[in-house]
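Margin note from the TA: students keep mixing up input and output lines. Inputs are the sequences; the output is the structure of the whole complex. Example:
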Amino acid sequence: MIHTFPDAREIVVAVRDWLREDVVTNPDPATSFQARVAANLLTALERELEDDGAVAARFAEALAAHGAESEAELALLLRRGDLAADTALVALLTEVTTARLRVSNPRHLDVGLDDDPRQT
Amino acid sequence: MSAPRPTPATALPDDGRTGDLASELCARLGEVGLDVAQIDGLRRLSGGASRETWSFAAVDRHGRRTPLILRRDPPGEPRPEIMHREAVALHAAERHGVPVPRVRDHGDGTEAIGTPYIVVDHVGGESIARRILRDDRYARSRARLAADLGRAAALVHAVPPSDVPGIPAADGLALNWDRYVEQDVPRPVLEIAFRWLEERRPDPVTPRLVHGDFRLGNVLVGDDGLTSVLDWELVHLGDPMEDLGYLCIRAWRFGGPRPVAGVGTFDDLFTAYEAAGGTAVDPARVRWWQVAGTLAWGVGAIVQANRHLRGSTRSVELAAIGRRVAEQEHDLLRMIDGSDLA
């Protein structure tokens, strides 16, 4: 790590706070709205910089084990029927998706939703 | 499909095109029979969504004002067939009593306005979900919203397909697959969801008029309930349960706790739908469309992000939507029962 003063996280926070405190108050509503969206993105990026990469490493291993070089290649194996969605794969994809939401939108991880029309 | 986070319904600054657009509107609306001496208060209402929306008033020689809305494709992203289909569907829906804004004019952009467009009456009400779900003034409307949506859906589905010439009989899942493949962003969870749905297709039904984007954010809500059904660009013939399932996906609850638009129960929705003449609701079929709708919005999020990433419309809002694909994947994994996958 050589880019440390300030480091990436500190820069992201500085830009985010400027957007949230100064740009959001812009009288042009479109600019204000986009600034709010941009600030939220930087909050997610801040969380991303704190991600320890453990899930990404497991995902990379699994991709390699299936002979796929990328997530897109894994998807194409499923599309062609060269790979079946077994329990282990679904568990891994669930783990990856959860890790993504922990960064992009942790509130979406709520469980126990009243969600199924067949239960009413 | 519209962007999931509606932009504020306030004016954007004049970018220099407003004067030209006002003269064009004045001339064009005169040609199609409106008594219009001048256009007043022309202003752009939203940015970043799939279409431009402009508000203005047509003022006649006696100073009487007719408040109108212009929706047009962004220059550079014209979709004339879709605009035409929407106009035809709105006409038919109005004739059959669906609450919709009256169409005053539409065109493919070759004769006026420069890009495909539609001009409709301005209808009072709020479209921004966050306000409908949280502002005090909509408390009464929230209590009846699920039932209002059920009644509106029943009216949409009762419009005779023969009154909407040229409307596509669309296989929603196949259309969505085509859109997904065209985006070239393959995702394992979406592949699994497409296969899961394909293997569990409900039995075919007599095709009805289906709105195709029926949800909070695409309806107007006033102080006493729903006032108008908007955004008909995905209208097609298909299974009416598609609209009910799509309405109830998590994204369109905007954080609200209940399954229907964040505020209502399935029972409120289904009871009102059937009472207003809709076909008997089959919850299992609604569930299938709920999964299909979640998948459709996952693909929609890819489409929106690609508009930014491929450069057709640069926007931080569109870029942000790309990360929301994971939300739909999360919901799909939750709804798809893992035990019957293999």
